[in-house]
Design brief:
The structure holds 4 protein chains of 4 kinds. Chain A has 16 helices and 22 strands. Chain A is an alpha/beta fold. Chain A is globular and about 65 Å long. Chain B is α+β, with helices and mostly antiparallel strands. Chain B folds into 2 domains: 103 residues, Roll (Ubiquitin-like (UB roll)), CATH 3.10.20.30; 126 residues, Fumarate Reductase Iron-sulfur Protein, Chain B, domain 2. In chain B, strands 2-1-5-3-4 form a 5-stranded mixed beta sheet. In chain B, strand 3 and strand 4 form a beta hairpin. By secondary structure, chain C is an all-alpha fold. In chain C, 77% of the residues lie in helices and 0% in strands. Chain C has a single domain, classed as Fumarate reductase/succinate dehydrogenase, transmembrane subunit (3 helical TM bundles of succinate and fumarate reductases), CATH 1.20.1300.10. By secondary structure, chain D is mainly alpha-helical. In chain D, helix 1 crosses helix 4 and helix 4 runs antiparallel to helix 5. The longest helix of chain D has 28 residues. Classes of the chains: A alpha/beta, B alpha+beta, C mainly alpha, D mainly alpha. Chains in contact: A-B, A-C, B-C, B-D, C-D. The interface between A and C is small, with 5 and 3 residues. Bound molecules: flavin-adenine dinucleotide, protoporphyrin IX containing FE, iron/sulfur cluster, FE3-S4 cluster and FE2/S2 (inorganic) cluster. The site of flavin-adenine dinucleotide has 46 residues of chain A, from helix 1, strand 2, helix 4, strand 7 and helix 5.
């Protein structure tokens, strides 16, 4: 293996290649996970953060509700309670050793944010204020809902994200904003850096590092209706796949019951919490058929499934794919006082005044529980089980430790992203203290990436990228969405094959190097097609219903056969599977009833 | 459903001789469609080379700020129907260097912000295993300050910025005041001093364009007036 | 992205003075306009003006009016130039020009106000 | 490069442009005014001569305009100072409205008095 020499990289057939950048640590992703790791590692080492969007544009900023921690500022709380709720919420698929670490360290992480300057809302005593959130309870589920979600009004993610950016500025973290990671450089199980595309100026850059971390976020965009940003295309996942590494539990995708019709933008749980009704075309509060006790306040996955059933059985409004969330009976005063954000969202994005009209809503793809398998120190696992890849880390929504198992509790993901981001930072520092040398860079490090760029820049078929993407999103929603069955999933496997064939024949309108978003959308579609296969294949294999994964042909949870994590690789066109046991320490699986 | 004509100010960096030009597109828009939806539709169905930034499409990331019918706003927050027009003009934010079409360089925005030390400065170590205390009233002072999404609409609308590209800018003033107003920050002077600069506060002529432009309904001018008072008091 | 100290020229006190002088001018100017155009019963003649300017109090008021107005006005003009003129040599030229105008106007004004004596 | 041809002129922009223009106009006027009154020291004849020349209806008319400009700069200046003091920053449009009303009222008052004393304008 020869070392790459900046002098020897030249323009390759019209694609400019730029010199090599060297940093001790290179982090891809400037969301909560990425920037929290940067903050941790930058005291001792030279850290660079790459992000395809400007750091504060990361999707962590969209989170509204809060970040969970058993601070007990408002009422009695214990990490054991938080742990129980998380384990139960995960439908017992979460690894309990990782969950234990998370709930124990949560107060530390949240208080650290406060010390950095996050403008949390406050209790009258001046402590961090906490609110209720779905699934978080007192006394191992025996008490009622608990005040556990720490919040900054309804802009918690925004407050945390901007705060982290500020701390990164203070610590002089080097940012490469609008750089798009194209491929990982992993040889002999050692991660040596990565290749990225400079979005603004165009050009392939090689980043040489002793440690690389991924915090690339979720992939909601493979679904038609999603609460996720347009940038959430899960690139990191297929980069990992392409490097020959596995992904874990990809079949678990969370759908939030209340997304604005067609937009998917999230209407927070507060709408139902404050007493909003959900009604179908006939004006029925149909939740009384599905959850007569809790009605609209039943857990997310159940409400989502109920709404989808109504829609599927033709009781959507006017037969369309939406139902109403009706707030009118709450009165204008209460709406404006308690739910101003919802009023604003409905007005700005649907032109609906929710004091006078009901809000059209439909379930929306929200969160991906699965991802890159890591251990508790955020090291990426080469075999998905034990053996880490040297110098490669991941945290946040793109990773799977797995603390969310089959279903994530609200406010646990901001926690996971920052907490495991922090752990990744710490563990990189430990790693770097021991290594002084940069690993060797292979001479062909950038070859694949350049090939990919060249292929797309010269793509001249007849298919529009957007058409293929829309078909993918529509089909994934129909055939691999809230309700799944062998029949639908098999159809989806076939559809994916066809979509991939069409993808070979795409056409690109924009052939320039500078800010070519046409090119990026093509690359992103490539990623989405790639890991979608794993979502579908994993869902097809998993013949049970657990958490967010709901099979109409296997409606029961099956602990005997399926209390295990899915690991999947892609070798060529083949998908290979392996499974690993769930780590159970304190709480034995029980039936999940609310 | 209505057919809307979009007049978009375009610029292709690979064809600088052509410079900036207006291009027209026709889009079918229905109730609920935002400007961003229409731009996406143009990009996805008609012309893939049309370039703009976007991500969250819910008005929180700050990517899609642009000038819509002569006023800065977020494309994803403006309802096409609410404009009640059949021709809509879309241009890149004024005052920044255009990279391509509606994409502008945000360097001046970041530079302005970096000048005011945009982070909390503390001298005493925080209490262990506890948060710093801050009463709800003290916290309330940060409302209207911390919500800024760094979209750049305000600074791009400010005639003082049009005249001076090194003007620190209302977004950075807002940021500075966010820390000056925070009871936990122990060095308000360090945020204030950089503002006493020839590209700083005194360039603000209370024009209020920034307030009119801010899509998050924040009030940079209010922060500016507080900062001016604080700085002058500091000098005496 | 490193924080870099910029050369600073301040401006706080000048800014403040522009406000204080504005308020002062508002009072005096209003008085000025009132006395000349509203309160004055007769024609605007030499005597009418001369009698007033001759009293020591009016002398002080008028001279401070003059100084403050000149400062406010010409510094105001500088603010405008400062916004739009960025070439160093033009800035220096304009600054010099404003200073000279200020000086000349000041001399002319003082020469006008000082000579009047009560009864003279 | 100037890309945008139009940026909507909000009230605040209007107020600022007018303030700038009126300020600059006032400097101009102030300098002329200084030259005019310097005739005081040249002698009674000279001054009254100039004053007579300036008493033609045309100049009276211009003077009324001038008063308007002064009054605008004065009241808008006070408005700016109030805003800098943090008064009504959140209700700046209302403050601008007040400013305009006070400005027009003051202008109307002074000019009526002037016109009355002049014995009415030729065309009134
Ligand atoms: C509407 C909404 C509301 C939510 N509310 C809550 C809540 O109240 N509480 C809660 O706990 N969780 C909530 N979540 C979930 C939570 O926000 C996310 O799971 C979490 O923020 C993920 O953080 P992250 O750092 O992993 O990723 P992100 O914040 O998504 O960041 C991903 C980063 O990776 C970068 N990136 C991706 N691909 C590439 C590439 N190829 N090259 C370069 N850079 C790349 C992106 O630019 C970005 O900077 C919500 C989610 C949504 C969508
Ligand atoms: C009558 C009372 C006056 C008041 C209350 C007043 C107030 C002000 C204020 C507050 C400013 C600062 C505006 C800013 O920074 O945006 C200003 C600017 C200015 N003033 Fe005055 N002023 C008065 C009289 C005058 C006079 C008599 C002149 C002329 C000789 C004058 C000329 C100017 C000029 C040229 C500016 C700069 C304009 C600008 O910055 O846009 N002013 N005035
Ligand atoms: S203050 Fe408003 S307009 Fe300015 S950057 Fe922040 S959010 Fe955008
Ligand atoms: S528009 Fe500009 S001049 Fe001041 S009030 Fe706002 S910063
Ligand atoms: S796309 Fe994020 S603010 Fe418009």
């Amino acid at each position: 293996m020869s070392t790459i020499d900046p002098e020897t990289i030249h323009d390759v057939e019209g694609v400019p290649v730029h010199s090599v950048h060297r940093h001790d640590v290179i982090i891809v992703g400037a969301g909560l996970a990425g920037m929290r790791a940067a903050v941790e590692a930058s005291d001792e080492f030279d850290v660079a953060v790459l992000s395809k969007v400007f750091p504060t544009r990361s999707h962590s900023g969209g989170a509204q509700g809060g970040i969970a921690a058993s601070l007990a500022n408002e009422e009695e709380d214990h990490w054991e309670w938080h742990m129980f709720d998380t384990v139960k919420g995960s439908d017992y698929l979460g690894d309990q050793d990782a969950i234990e670490i998370m709930v124990k360290e949560a107060p530390v992480v949240v208080r650290e944010f406060e010390h950095y300057g996050t403008p949390f809302s406050r209790t009258p005593e001046g402590r961090i204020a906490q609110r209720k959130f779905g699934g978080h309870t007192k006394d191992f589920g025996r008490g009622g809902p608990i005040l556990r979600a720490c919040y900054a009004a309804d802009r918690t993610g925004h407050a945390l994200l901007h705060n982290l950016y500020e701390v990164c500025i203070k610590k002089e973290v080097r940012f490469y904003p609008e750089f798009y990671a194209l491929s990982l450089i992993i040889r002999d199980n050692v991660c040596r850096g990565l290749v990225a595309w400079d979005v603004i100026n165009g050009g392939v850059h090689v980043f040489h590092a002793k440690a690389v971390m991924f915090g690339t976020g979720g992939y909601g965009k493979v679904f038609e209706i999603t609460s996720n940003a347009l940038a959430n295309t899960g690139d990191g996942l297929s980069l990992v796949l392409r490097a020959g590494l596995p992904l874990e539990d990809m079949e678990f995708v969370q759908f939030h019951p209340t997304g604005l019709y067609l937009q998917g933008i999230l209407v927070s749980e507060a709408a139902r919490g404050e007493g909003g009704y959900i009604i179908n075309d006939k004006g029925e509060r149909f939740m009384e058929r599905y959850a007569p006790d809790k009605m609209e306040l039943a857990p997310r996955d159940l409400v989502s499934r109920s709404i989808q059933t109504e829609i599927n059985e033709g009781r959507g409004i006017g037969g369309e794919a939406y139902v109403y969330c009706d707030l009118r009976h709450l009165g204008e005063d209460a709406i404006m006082k308690k739910l101003p954000q919802i009023h604003e969202l409905a007005w700005k994005f649907l032109h609906v005044d929710c004091t006078k009209e009901p809000i059209p809503i439909q379930p929306t793809a929200h969160y991906s529980m699965g991802g890159i398998p890591t251990n508790k120190d955020a090291q990426v696992l080469a075999d998905g089980k034990e053996r880490p890849v040297e110098g490669f880390y991941a945290a946040g929504e793109c990773a799977c430790v797995s603390v969310h198992g089959g279903n994530r509790l609200g406010t646990n993901s901001l926690l996971e992203a920052s907490l495991f981001g922090r752990r990744a930072g710490k563990s990189m520092v430990r790693f770097l203290r021991g290594t002084r040398e940069f690993p060797e860079l292979p001479a062909d490090a950038a070859k694949l990436a350049i090939k990919e760029i060249e292929r797309f820049l010269s793509a001249d078929g007849g298919e529009r990228v957007a058409d293929i993407r829309e078909d993918l999103q529509g089909k994934m929603t129909d055939e691999c969405g809230i309700f799944r069955s062998a029949e639908k999933l098999e159809a989806m496997v076939k559809d994916l094959g066809e979509l991939e064939k069409r993808f070979e024949k795409i056409k690109i309108d924009d052939r320039s190097n500078k800010f070519n978003s046409d090119l990026l959308e093509a690359i992103e579609l490539g990623h989405m097609l790639e890991f979608s296969e794993l979502i579908v294949a994993g869902a097809l294999k998993r013949e049970e219903s657990r958490g967010a994964h709901s099979r109409t042909d296997f409606p029961k949870r099956d602990d005997e056969k399926w209390l295990k994590h899915t690991l999947a690789w892609k070798k060529g066109d083949e998908i290979t599977f392996d499974y690993k046991p769930v780590i159970i320490t304190r709480f034995q699986p029980k039936e999940r009833t609310y | 459903m209505a057919t809307i004509t979009f007049k978009i100010n375009r610029f292709n960096p690979d064809d600088e001789r052509r410079g900036h030009f207006m291009q027209k597109y026709q889009v079918e828009a229905k109730k609920g469609d935002t400007i961003l939806d229409c731009l996406n539709r143009i990009k996805w169905k008609q012309d893939g080379s049309l370039t703009f930034r976007r991500s969250c499409r819910s008005g929180i990331c700050g990517s899609c700020a642009m000038t819509i019918d002569g006023v800065n706003n977020l494309a994803c927050e403006v309802q096409v129907m609410a404009l009640k027009r059949d021709t809509i003009t879309v241009e890149p934010l004024r005052g920044y260097t255009v990279i391509k079409d509606l994409v502008v360089s945000l360097d001046p925005l970041v530079k302005g912000m970096l000048k005011v030390k945009p982070y909390m400065i503390t001298k005493t170590p925080p209490p262990t295993d506890q948060e710093r205390l801050q009463s709800p009233e003290e916290r309330e002072k940060l409302d209207g300050l911390y919500e800024c999404i760094l979209c750049g609409s305000c600074t791009s609308s400010c005639p003082s910025f049009w005249a001076d590209k090194e003007y620190i800018g209302p977004h950075a003033f807002l940021k500075a005041y966010r820390f000056v107003a925070d009871t936990r920050d122990e060095a308000p002077r360090e945020h204030l001093e950089p503002l006493d600069d020839k590209h700083g506060l005194w360039r603000c002529h209370t024009i209020f364009n920034c307030v009119e432009a801010c899509p998050k309904d924040l009030n940079p001018t209010k922060a500016i007036s507080e900062l001016k008072k604080a700085l002058v008091n500091d000098k005496f | 992205m490193r924080y870099k100290e910029t050369v600073r020229s301040g401006g706080a006190l000048l800014w403040y003075f522009q406000r204080v002088s504005g308020v002062f001018l508002a009072v005096v100017l209003f008085l000025h306009v009132y006395i000349i155009h509203v309160a004055l019963k007769d024609e605007l003649t030499f005597h009418a003006i001369a009698d007033r300017v001759a009293t020591p109090l009016w002398k002080v008021i008028d001279i401070s009016f003059l100084v403050v107005a000149l400062f406010h006005g010409l510094y105001g003009a500088w603010i405008v130039f400062d916004d739009y003129i960025h070439k160093p040599w033009m800035r220096i030229t304009l600054f010099a020009a404003l200073s000279i105008v200020a000086l000349l106007a000041l001399i002319l004004g003082i020469l006008t106000i000082l000579p009047f004596q009560v009864g003279g | 490069m100037r890309v945008i041809k139009h940026y909507r002129i909000h009230l605040g922009t209007l107020a600022w442009i007018l303030h700038r223009l009126s300020g600059l106009a006032l400097i101009f006027y102030m300098l002329i005014h200084l030259w005019v009154i310097h005739h005081l020291i040249v002698g009674e004849k000279s001054f009254d001569g100039v004053m007579e020349f300036l008493s033609t209806p045309l100049f009276k008319f211009l003077e009324i305009g001038l008063i308007g400009v002064i009054m605008y700069h004065l009241f808008n200046g006070l408005r700016v100072i109030l805003i800098d003091m943090g008064v009504m920053v959140e209700k700046q449009k209302m403050l601008f409205g007040f400013t305009v009303v006070v400005w027009l009222a003051a202008w109307l008052w002074v000019s009526t008095v002037m016109v009355m004393r002049f014995g009415g304008l030729p065309f009134i």
